[in-house]
Amino acid sequence: MSVEIRLVPCLSDNYAVLLHDGDVTAVIDAPEAPAIEKTLGKEGWKLTHILITHHHADHVDGIPALKKKYGAKVIGPRADGEIPLVDEKVGEGDTVKVGSMSARVLDTPGHTAGHISYVFDKEKLLFAADTLFVLGCGPRVRKARFSALAVAIKTAPTARRHETLLRPRIHARQCPVRNHGRSA
Ligand SMILES: [Zn+2]
Predict the structure, then answer these.
(1) Which residues contact 2 (CB under 8 A, 6 or more apart)?
(2) Domain limits for position 137
(3) Does residue 135 lie within any of the structural domains?
C-alpha cells in the first residue's frame, strides 16, 4: 500500500503532516490537537506515532492531548529543549520505524540547537520543518547560529531528490514570533 499524506492547517499560520500506511498513522509535529484530531476522524485513521522536529510550542503543544487520546508513541530530538511525553529520543544516524516505513534522522541545527529532520528515502519524503522556510530561514535564527545553519544545508541534496514537505511557511518576513513562544 502506498503512503497517503494529508497536510493539516493548524493555528493561524502553521501545518502538521499526516502520513498513513496500512495500520499506522504518523503526524510530523503537533502544533495543536483539535485540527489533527479532526482530520484523523474524517479519514478514519488512528494516530500511532508523533514525530517531533524541535521543541518550539507551535510544534509540541498538541502532544499531550494527542497522546492521551490515541496513546501514540512520541519520538523527538535527543539534544533539543523540553518536549513533553517523549518516548524515544533520536539524533543523527538513527532510524525511526513507522510501521513498514523507515526514516533516517538528520541533525539540522540552526533554527534551534537540536533541530532534527526526518528522511523517508523509500517514499522520497523529507520533513525539514523549520530548518528550511520557503522564503528564508525563519525569524528566530540568531547570529551565533548561522554557522550551524550552514551545516543544516546538508539537507539540500536530500531535498533535491525528495518531495520536501517544508510545512509551507511562506511567512519568513511576517511570521509572528508569538508562535515560537519558547526559548530557541
Ligand atoms: Zn520553530
Answers:
(1) 21
(2) 4-179
(3) yes
Question: How many Cβ atoms sit within 10 Å of the Cβ of residue 82?
Answer: 10
- Distance from residue 88's CA to the centre of ligand 1 (Å): 20
Domain count, the chain: 1
- The CA 58 to ligand 1 mean position distance, Å, reads 7
184 occurs within a structural domain = no
Q: Taking the C-alpha atoms of 100, 106, 109 and 115 in order, what is their torsion angle to the nearest 10 degrees? A: 10
Cα(181) to centroid(ligand 1), Å:
9
Note whether residue 47 is domain-resident: yes
Closest C-alpha to 127, from 96, 89, 81? 96
Report residue 106: phi and psi, to 5°: -115, 135
Q: How far away, in angstroms, is 110 Cα from ligand 1 center?
A: 10
Distance 141 CA to ligand 1 centre (A): 9
Rounded to the nearest whole angstrom, what is the distance from the C-alpha of residue 1 to the centroid of ligand 1?
32
Structure confidence by residue, pLDDT tens digits, 92-127: 999 999 999 999 999 888 888 899 989 898 888 888
Distance (Å) from CA 55 to ligand 1 centroid? 7
- Whole-model pTM? 0.80
Q: Cell for 117? A: 529532520
Q: What is the CATH number of the domain that holds 167?
A: 3.60.15.10
Report yes or no on 88 lying in a domain: yes
Separation of CA 68 and ligand 1 centre (Å): 24
